[in-house]
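G., the chain you wanted modeled:
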Amino acid sequence: MRARYSAHATGDLDFILKSWHPSTRPADADAIKTWNDSCAWLALNVAQSHKLGTKGVVEFVALYRQSGQLKQHHEVANFRFEKGRWWYLDRSD
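Predicted structure as C-alpha cells:
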C-alpha cells in the first residue's frame, strides 16, 4: 500500500496500473491520471492490515488537497499474492 501511495504522490501512473490486478484493473487510465494530477498528496495513515495466506487487507486513510480543499480517501483495500508479488485487487465497501 505504501508503494501505491508513493506512486500516487509522485504521479507514477505506470506503477499504479502495473500493481493493479489485471482482472480488476480499470480500462480508463486517463480518468485515473486526470484525477491523480488534480491532487496534492499529503500523508498516508495505515490503520490496520491483515494477511491470511494469499489474501491481504489494508485499511488506510490518505490525505490530499484538491482544488484548495483538504480531503481524505478512506479505503479498505483487498490484495492478492500471486505470481510472486502482491496485487491491488479492489476495495471493500
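The longest strand covers residues 39-52.

Shout if anything looks off.
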